[in-house]
Amino acid sequence: MYEKIVPPNVGSRITFANGEPIVPDNPIIPFIQGDGTGVDIWPAAQRVFDAAVKQAYNGQRQIVWFKVYAGDEACEVYGTYQYLPEDTLNAIREFGVAIKGPLTTPIGGGIRSLNVALRQIHDLYACVRPCKYYAGTPSPHKTPEKLDVIVYRENTEDIYLGIEWRQGSEIGDRLIKLLNEELIPATPEHGKKQIPLDSGIGIKPISKTGSQRLVRRAMKHALRLPKSKQMVTLVHKGNIMKYTEGAFRDWGYELVTTEFRAECVTERESWILGNKERNPDLSVEDNARQIEPGYDALTPEKKADVCKEVQAVLDAIWATHGNGQWKDKIMVNDRIADSIFQQIQTRPDEYSILATMNLNGDYLSDAAAAIVGGLGMGPGANIGDNCAIFEATHGTAPKHAGLDRINPGSVILSGVMMLEYMGWQEAADLIKQGIGAAISHREVTYDLARLMEPPVDPPLKCSEFAEAIVKHFGGK
User: What's the pLDDT score for residue 116?
Assistant: First the structure.
């Protein structure tokens, strides 16, 4: 099955049932060291993982590591342009859960991005990015501790699918001609719009299947959170892109109000129920007037639609969600993408899980990470129904490679996510406590040290930061 790698002769595979992992006590986990500073941060991270598992389970559990190759290191082993060998893909497929350091975007070789390729090949449709503040971490924000969000970013669709044509290409010109001469004129709502003939052109597919499976996973995550954090916000630009991003919102609401009807309430439904609770004698029309701005200026048809909506909600869920019962449900709402960028800064404590499409999620997760200390402290996971890959979210920083100075926090926190995903919460908690205590004791690498007041001099090396985390297990 493998050309140049040999799986460990001890350990067991992680398997999956209904999209969830079944984890043995000695799982074999493939790891990709990563390019550039991967040579520094991976050994530091592995030291922390092994120490946490050993302390948490006293030898009853153990990760069996399996080295596989991607990026520049793969080319050294498999040959020129072999950035993502079949051995690696097969190992991840066989053993189910993997973790990786940062990878270089190849020059030549036909792969746009190794990270995107791994997600698409293994159908890892949910990119999960928690953004949580650890006390003492330098931040440009005045109140970073208020932000504690998890971004669920759809991974396989949107413009990141990579279907596009260069300006002046034969197929691109043919497509523009078809759109300008046939398809746009045949769609009255587009009026006389035309695509400039000297355009590059790309396709933005958003599917009902892709949208709903992402929202489903976000909802399942919300159910595991404390009641105060059980909120899922659908982030979109549906006011402009109605049939892609707007459809994502609509399909999201459809999913939650069918599959999770007993566990959730939408924001709009909560308004209707709350109005009725405050005034039991409130008429349907007055309730509609309170939930719909400008109700009295609407056409009779639109007024009737809003009243119909109010009556339908009361008929469907008053018995199960009324009289305050909805306050114990998952709250599902939606926000326009540009608005949420502002609100995670001005009202960060109002949000918990943000579910969105690929491009929005890319921007949003990095913006949220910046608030809590930057990508050096930003973990990430790519999760599907039969596989999961956990990863450092920053780049390779080759000028720092081999100097034992880079912050390993991103890959360590990604390992925390991996342990939580595996159900090994005790080991995950030890690492989180260790990171928090190390930072609060000002035992940090140079990137954090130089931003602290006063600056920490000298900072810890990458390997020393790992040892500090282990020393502070339990938050000591």
Answer: 84
pTM of full prediction above 0.90: yes
Q: Is 237 a catalytic residue?
A: yes
Q: Which of 25, 328, 338, 349 does the annotation list as catalytic?
A: 338
3-state helix vs strand vs coil in the chain, percent to 5: 50, 15, 35
DSSP H helices, 191-321, are: 208-223, 245-259, 267-278, 284-291, 300-321
Q: Which of 69, 83, 134, 160 does the annotation list as catalytic?
A: 160
Residue closest to 414 by CA, chosen among 43, 14, 100, 145: 100
Checking DSSP bridges between strand 353-356 and strand 264-266, what pairing results, if any? Answer: unpaired
Question: Is the Cβ–Cβ distance between 101 and 134 less than 8 Å?
Answer: no
Cis-peptide, bond into residue 454, ω within 30° of zero = yes
Average confidence (pLDDT) over 361-375: 91
Average pLDDT over residues 168-193: 96
* pLDDT at position 178 over 80: yes
Q: Is the omega angle on the peptide bond into residue 379 within 30 degrees of 0, that is, cis?
A: no
Determine contact, residues 407/445, Cβ cutoff 8 Å: yes
Would residue 362 show up in a list of annotated catalytic residues for this protein?
yes
